[in-house]
Specification:
The protein is an alpha+beta fold. Helix content is 39%, strand content 19%. It contains eight helices and four strands, in the order αααββαββαααα.
Length: 166
């Protein structure tokens, strides 16, 4: 914390389910006067497997899942999935890409560091400030045809957010 207050870049890894959980954990371990002057941003990330470009094909997820996604993120016209080929070892997946949730702690969010909050309260404040969740980034990559929806659902299972009630 002293290095961060001195203006040095300090990167720390915290095992957390999302950015809100990481902030809540850090705030619980570090005194408010120290963390408020040192913490500038939190980045949550998950790796998901991408669709194999060689065997990419249209995919039709179950109707209930399509409806739920449309309710929360808006309609997605085309879903993709790999059929499986020799290039991807018959998995339909090739390579990985990150899902990210970046939360800069400035303005109203920085002021919240002064008082203790749990992850749920941080999550609400982060969304109110307009910062998208891991789920939003995941569905953007599904919409772009980069990642199969099943992969996002699997990787983010248990991660709070828009689809957690699914």
């Amino acid at each position: 914390a002293a290095a961060a207050r001195a203006g040095r870049l300090v990167l720390a890894r915290v095992r957390a389910i999302d950015a809100a959980d990481a902030i809540a954990q850090a705030a619980a371990r570090v005194p408010a006067d120290v963390i408020g002057g040192a913490l500038r941003a939190v980045l949550a990330q998950r790796l998901v497997r991408t669709v194999c470009p060689q065997c990419r094909a249209a995919n039709e997820p179950p109707a209930a899942l399509r409806r739920r996604i449309a309710e929360v993120f808006g309609p997605i016209e085309h879903f993709v999935k790999g059929r499986g080929c020799t290039r991807c070892g018959r998995t339909g997946l090739s390579g990985r890409i990150g899902l990210f949730e970046l939360v800069p702690l400035e303005g109203p969010l920085a002021e919240l560091l002064d008082s203790p909050r749990d992850a749920r309260a941080w999550r609400a404040a982060i969304r109110a400030a307009g910062h998208p969740s891991l789920w939003v980034d995941g569905m953007a990559k599904v919409r772009a045809g980069i990642v199969p929806v099943e992969e996002v659902m699997t990787v983010l299972a248990g991660c709070p957010g828009e689809m957690a009630a699914q």
